[in-house]
Amino acid sequence: MRKGTSMSDERMRFRDLTGRGIGALPTGPLNAITDVAGVEVGQTTVWHGEPPGAPGTGPARTGVTAIWPGHRDIFERPVPAGTHVLAGTGEIICMTEIDELGLLASPIMLTNSMQIGSVYDATARYLMARNPEIARTTHVTMPVVGECDDSFLNDSRGMHVQREHVWAALDAASADHVEEGAVGAGTGMTCMGFKGGIGTSSRVVEIGGAGYTVGVLALTNYGRRRRLTIGGRLLGPDFPELLPEVGSAPPPEGRHGEGSSIVVAATDAPLTSHQLARLAKRAAFGLVRVGSTGGNGSGELAVAFSTAYTVEQLPRYEVELLNNFAIDELFEAAVDASEEAIVNSMCMATTTVGRDGNTVHALPLDRLAQLLA
Q1: Using CA atoms, how far apart are residues 60 and 44, in angstroms rounded to an integer?
Q2: 260 catalytic, yes or no?
Q3: Is residue 71 classed as helix, strand or coil in its secondary structure?
């Protein structure tokens, strides 16, 4: 069951609700990561069964989200990338290779914690099916796959994300509007004690007479209600009710109020991998601004990539890069877009009842608007 908890069941993005956004920089046309030219997002939501269900059979409240970083020939033409770890009780497969080589050579996949391996397998098979030379005449593929724990709402023992769900998300990816809230990898996620999920936002800056875009997609599953902060205002104490409701089975001991979040930042600005690691760090600031303390049980990870150039397999290549002294506005763009993406994930999510009857409520939009008026 999914339903809204505001006076109207209609959900809307933070900017549409309040008439203003986060920060002072303008957004791209879609206010989404897909405002960065070439970036495509595809999602498959896996939703079946009704509570309470039985372990291993459902209900399923999960899914997968796929991000193509600039083009679909990413294996042959990787792009520069960097990462940042805000809190490390989580995982993105292949972060170490990105850190070592400064390159991203696969789509970025997001899913639930228990299925990071199966989504890796399905993505590797997808890429091999489309390139018969992988692991034969050329090197192996190592897909980038990140996870967050949705087991409060999702029957994670059921391993409900199948290969066809992964392939469908990759095939259906587009550069258009990105669906937000309880969708794709965000279907079973919880953020700041409200329903979370997928959120996105973008910012546009001008540097040296040229325009650049920073877009962020966030998978949100972290934080304690009392620390909920939006636009610099502490709002958690204004929402003492509508806390997650435990059905017939409590959450794992020691994990209440914690989870994980992944922030993916894309830009068309020509940056080095080191500069992109710095951009990823600033994107992680958005998690802190909404209320993260990087809790013991929380994995809060960020990846940033640039679509400005590809790294060809040549002995030498040349590219014109931005100077470090010119990229402060890109940092500002990453922080603001990340915060707004996280808030959008809550504004667009609907109340969800999952395994064992556990319930996570939607953020009441009418009250949020009143508080921020």
Answers
A1: 13
A2: yes
A3: coil
What is the number of H-type helices and E-type strands within the chain?
Answer: 7, 18
Q: What is the sign, positive or negative, of the torsion defined by CA atoms of 83, 87, 93, 94?
A: positive
300 a catalytic residue: yes
DSSP 151: T
pTM over 0.90: yes
What's the rounded Cα separation, in Å, for the pair 138 and 153?
A: 42
What percent of the chain is predicted at pLDDT more than 90?
Answer: 90
**Which residues, other chains included, contact 98 with Cβ-Cβ below 8 Å and sequence gap of 6+?**
81, 82, 83, 104, 144, 273, 303
Angle made by CA atoms 71, 182, 241, in degrees to the nearest 5: 145
| Structure-token pair, residue 90 | 């989580």
- Packing angle, helices 328-347 and 273-290, rounded to 10: 40
For residue 130, give both structure tokens.
Answer: 């489309």
Listed by start position, the domains of the chain span 21-49+57-239+256-311+321-353
User: Is 8 assigned a catalytic role?
Assistant: no
CA-to-CA separations, 111 to 41, 254, 347, in angstroms, rounded: 14, 22, 21
- In order, the DSSP letters of 257-317 are T--EEEEEEEE-S---HHHHHHHHHHHHHHHHHHT----TT-EEEEEEEE-S----SSS--
**C-alpha torsion angle, residues 16, 303, 154, 152 (rounded to 10):** -90
- 3-class SS of residue 209: coil
Each residue's pLDDT tens digit, 70-116: 999 999 999 999 999 999 999 999 999 999 999 999 999 999 999 99
260, 261, 292, 306: the active-site residue? 260
Q: Say what the pLDDT of residue 316 is.
A: 85
**H or E segment and range at residue 351:** strand 351-353
Query: Which residue in 180, 300, 339, 340 is the catalytic one?
Result: 300
* Dist. CA 10–CA 90, nearest whole Å: 33
Which candidate in 113, 118, 151, 298 is catalytic? 298
Please name the fold of domain 21-49+57-239+256-311+321-353. L-amino peptidase D-ALA esterase/amidase (3.60.70)
Distance between CA 212 and CA 204 in Å, rounded? 6
